[in-house]
Specification:
heterodimer; A: about 230 residues; alpha/beta; Rossmann fold; six-stranded mixed β-sheet; four-stranded antiparallel β-sheet; 7 helices; about 30% helix; globular; B: about 600 residues; alpha+beta; 3 domains; 26 strands
């Protein structure tokens, strides 16, 4: 599913250059649930951005679902983000002026190929699967943190992606809500045969993944083994 | 991103930021309303005020004057300024029509208005002769306004068979109801009876027969198609020359003041002879005193001249016009149709009325149909012609036109030609004074003016003033257009600022959209679409405000300018192209204002804003 070879990423800010990823290699199999762990600043989120096609300024080779990301123009990269990959962010990033249902079906606006037939029905189905069908008409401000993250998961699954990238999805939640969110991610991804990469600091969450990959100083120091 | 999706995002975004957008589009609204208001006003003034004086495709030219040893002399002195010149001018490139003008060359004075002012006004009279076709449209339009006002005043449409059954100022129309008299027709359909004492007092081609100018039959045929040869009035047998007279079936098929004489069904239209009961009637202040009595028949059907004869007055709307002031016999004639300049009314209302203690006239309707007496061949300022060459006629105001003589009477040109010939000889009626030239469009005018100047003509004062006014109006339009553009330009800067703030506030939202598959151009389109929608809404509101303001301005003009005749009901002309251009400018400036923020929005880095 994912093949990364000799990935380098540098942040250049005025006179300071930070070499965040230093020749990183990684392979992820289809349907795998992978935990990406490491200290803050080790390059986990940066790696996620590169894999998700949000960051194009790197060196090395990155292939996701058979697509070599380097060199794709904005249109092709946007299409890749729309069709192949989805994100769940630590701070949810739901749009406050839209209802829960509208947030879930947000990606339908950019569905040029009309891949998603009946977007409202699809959004309601996903909300049902995350247990929030009765909150479809609510605004994000009326939801708890756990509920917001479950809506974000439903939004991420709306386009039927092949890869789900979750950047500390439980980081802003207490343990109870964090656990329910993780349950949602694992159950839904397994049901849909999704490949999932979860960035986390939480060892309990990492323990529930198929494989744990540790990153330190921009390299994979523990490639992990399938559990 | 599909257009329908983009539209729903745009509408949603505009709705939630409506307050910020409403404030930032105030400048757009003000700019567009200013632009539309002044362009419409300028177009309206040009079309409905200036165009009345001289339409953009018409100019009036007269022979250029030069000073020779302190004396003004015409450059074209000695050249034929008659029909030949008309033909020459008609042959100039771009000229589509030529309307000659002739001034009266005889002295005249007039008095009348007793019924209006309490006592008669007396003044010297000057004439201008104009072709009816040059004025007909304007007269008709103005009378249409009067008709509209009369309808607004809920005049009753009374059934009738004859004019006398209708209220004053109305006539019995062919549909059997009373309606306002169509005065403009009297100008278009006027025909003049020319009195004479010799052939030289008649127009070329006419002869003086029995004191009136007639076109004689040539070899038993008339020059005018449809007319018949008839024996000159007062002649019998074949002793007199036969004359051309219009053929008729009955009195109704002849014009005002003519009767159908001859066998039923094949007669000729001939003047109706009449007589005044007493000489004082000629000099009285009341035009009704010269109504006169027919001498060709009696009201009770008995033979004229018998003691039992009940005199029959001249037909409705005609009066008895005597050959000269020494005679009481004449023919029933319709009054001389006179068109006045609105400027004259303005001067009366602003200066004369207050000086003489008269009530100001309330616009056109107060004077339409007013009759007065004209003393031809006599003057308050110079020696009169011999009494046998003086005549008294009745004039009637039939309309107003800005093309009319400012201080004087404007009458059909045929009448001026006839009067000039009768009183001053054929020479006096052989040259025109000015020519109104018409072209297909304004764009041909500059070249035409140059060609005319090369031929020794120059623009008349009115034409010069009209062109100056048009130039001034053009400059004012440019100035106001520029001011509007500056306002809209400043508004565009405001739009830029608003969108920069909004884009900054929405950076997470933009990041989410990018993460979900929005392209840079999708984001750009959304922001520019919002700007376009604001421009459209602001522009639309601006146009509505301009409409409202113009309605208010028209109302204010209606209240403040009641004494000025001919002011248009609406000073504004809204050209759909201008409205579209205004909306286009509004949208364009908003889009330009949002260009930089849209570019900035499209460059939001989702990796930076979404990942903590």
């Amino acid at each position: 599913m994912i093949r990364i070879r000799d990935l380098h990423k540098r942040y250049v800010d005025a006179e300071v250059t930070a070499h965040v990823l230093r020749g990183l290699d990684l392979e992820v199999q289809p349907g795998e649930l992978l935990a990406l762990v490491g200290k803050s600043g080790s390059g986990k989120s940066t790696l996620l951005n590169v894999i998700g096609g949000l960051d194009q300024s790197y060196e090395g080779e990155v292939q996701v679902a058979g697509v070599t990301l380097r060199g794709l123009d904005d249109r092709a990269l946007s299409r890749f983000r729309h069709e192949t990959v989805s994100y769940v962010f630590q701070l949810f990033h739901l749009l406050p002026h839209l209802t829960v249902l509208e947030n879930v079906r947000l990606a339908a606006w950019f569905d040029e190929a009309s891949r998603i037939a009946g977007p409202d029905a699809r959004a309601l189905e996903l909300l049902d699967r995350v247990g929030l069908a009765d909150r479809a008409g609510s605004r994000p401000g009326q939801l708890s943190g756990g509920e917001k993250q479950r809506v974000a998961i439903a939004r991420a699954l709306f386009t039927r992606p092949r890869l789900l990238l979750a950047d500390e999805p439980t980081g802003a939640l207490d343990s109870e809500h964090g656990s329910s969110v993780l349950n949602a991610i694992t159950e839904l991804s397994r049901a849909d045969g999704l490949t999932v990469i979860v960035v986390t600091h939480d060892d309990q969450i990492a323990a529930r993944c198929d494989r744990v990959v540790r990153i330190s100083d921009g390299r994979v120091v523990h490639p992990g083994e399938a559990t | 991103m599909k257009a329908s999706s983009a539209w729903s995002v745009i509408v949603q975004n505009v709705r939630r930021n409506r307050r910020a957008f409403a404030l930032s589009s105030v400048g757009i609204v003000v700019g567009v309303s200013t632009f539309v208001f002044f362009i419409a006003l300028s177009s309206g003034v040009k079309e409905r005020v200036l165009n009345r004086i001289y339409p953009v495709n018409q100019i009036e030219v007269e022979p250029a004057m030069v000073q020779v040893m302190g004396v003004s002399t015409s450059v074209l002195d000695g050249e034929d300024l008659g029909e030949e010149m008309v033909e020459t001018l008609r042959g100039l490139p771009a000229v589509t029509a030529v309307y000659p003008k002739m001034r009266s060359r005889l002295q005249a004075r007039l008095w009348g208005g007793k019924s209006l002012f309490g006592h008669a006004l007396r003044t010297e009279a000057f004439f201008d002769g104009l072709e009816a076709s040059l004025l007909a449209e304007e007269l008709q339009e103005v009378e249409g306004v009067v008709e509209k006002r009369a309808r607004a005043a809920k005049r009753s449409s009374r059934a009738c068979k004859r004019d006398v059954e209708c209220p004053l100022g109305d006539e019995c129309r062919p549909d059997g109801t009373c309606g306002r008299v169509e005065y403009w027709r009297r100008f278009s359909e006027a025909h003049a009876v020319s009195y004479c004492d010799e052939d030289a007092r008649c127009a070329v081609g006419q002869r003086c027969i029995e004191g009136r100018c007639h076109t004689p039959c040539v070899n038993g045929a008339c020059q005018v198609t449809g007319d018949r040869c008839a024996a000159a009035p007062g002649c019998s047998g074949g002793a007199c020359p036969a004359v051309c007279m219009p053929s008729c079936e009955s009195d109704g098929s002849c014009g005002d003041g003519l009767a159908c004489v001859g066998p039923a069904g094949s007669g000729t239209c001939q003047p109706i002879p009449c007589q005044l009961p007493r000489r004082e009637a000629l000099w009285s202040d009341l035009p009704a005193d010269v109504l006169g009595q027919r001498t060709d028949r009696c009201a009770n059907g008995v033979e004229p001249g018998s003691a039992a004869c009940v005199p029959e007055p001249c037909p409705q709307s005609t009066t008895c016009a005597t050959g000269d002031v020494t005679s009481l016999r004449g023919t029933c004639e319709p009054p001389i149709p006179v068109v006045l300049s609105p400027f004259l009314i303005e001067v009366f209302n602003t200066s004369v009325a207050s000086a003489l203690g008269f009530q100001p006239l309330d616009g056109v309707q107060a004077l339409l149909g007013v009759r007065f007496k004209i003393h031809l061949g006599a003057s308050y300022f110079s020696d009169a012609l011999p009494k046998e060459r003086q005549a008294i006629r009745v004039g009637e105001v039939v309309g107003f036109s800005s093309k009319a003589l400012d201080f004087g009477l404007t009458v059909p040109i045929e009448l001026v030609q006839s009067l000039n010939t009768r009183f001053m000889g054929r020479e006096a009626a052989s040259t025109y004074d000015t020519f109104v030239l018409e072209t297909a469009g304004n764009e041909d005018m500059s070249g035409l003016i140059a060609a005319l100047e090369a031929r020794g003509f120059e623009l008349s004062r009115k034409s010069r003033d009209a062109r100056k006014a048009a130039d001034l109006l053009f400059i004012l339009t440019l100035v106001f257009g520029f001011i509007s553009l500056v306002i809209v330009g400043i508004a565009a800067v405001n739009i830029t600022h608003t969108f920069l703030v909004i884009v900054s506030e929405r950076r997470y939202e933009i990041g989410v959209m990018r993460a979900l598959g929005a392209t840079r151009s999708d984001i750009r389109r959304i922001v520019l679409g919002e700007a376009a929608l604001i421009g459209l809404a602001g522009g639309g509101l601006g146009v509505c405000i301009a409409f409202g303001a113009s309605g208010l301005a028209n109302w204010a003009a209606e209240q403040a300018l009641t004494a000025i005749p001919f002011k248009p009901d609406d000073f504004f002309v809204y050209d759909p192209a201008i409205l579209l251009a205004a909306l286009g400018f509004s949208v364009l400036f908003c889009v330009l204002g949002a260009w930089v923020p849209a570019r900035r929005a499209s460059r939001v880095d989702p990796a930076r804003v979404l990942v903590t």
